[in-house]
Amino acid sequence: MPEFTFGRNKRLLTARSYRAVFGDTRYKVAHPNLLLLARPNQFSYPRLGLVVAKKNIRHAVDRNRVKRVARETFRSAQGYLDSLDIIFLARQGLDQLTHSEQTSLLNQSWQRLCRKLEAEK
């Protein structure tokens, strides 16, 4: 049974980890409000990195809400994600969606990423 937590080991923590994903993106899920970039990692679990720029989401409270929703949906979706390093990039307009719309959009994005993984196998 996979562990559905979001501890320190499930996060991309270093600039080197982020550069590795940006430099060698194997999977991409795009939407006008967000972008997911992913590449395989050597661990047996997925890891998530968040990029929520002030340029795209102006207020800190909105940036924090977007990050909270991204972490929560990742936490629940990690059971069907393979060992990947994933970067979530927020785009303009994501903060204009309601909480339920953000959750739905992110759940759909995780499912699209999962389908891309399955198609490659």
Order of helices and strands: HEEEHEH
Helical fraction equals 40-55%
Poorly predicted regions are none
Mean pLDDT: 93
Give the overall shape, derived from the CA principal axes: globular
Number of strands: 4
Overall number of domains: 1
Please describe the biggest sheet, giving its number of strands, its sense, and whether it closes into a barrel. Answer: 4 strands, mixed
Within the largest sheet, what's the order of strands? 1-2-4-3
Beta-strand content bin: 15-25%
CATH structural fold name: Ribosomal Protein S5, domain 2
Question: End-to-end distance, in Å?
Answer: 22 Å
User: Gyration radius, to the nearest Å?
Assistant: 14 Å
Structural class by SSE content: alpha+beta
Family: Belongs to the RnpA family.
Enzyme class: hydrolase
Subunit structure: Consists of a catalytic RNA component (M1 or rnpB) and a protein subunit.
EC number: 3.1.26.5
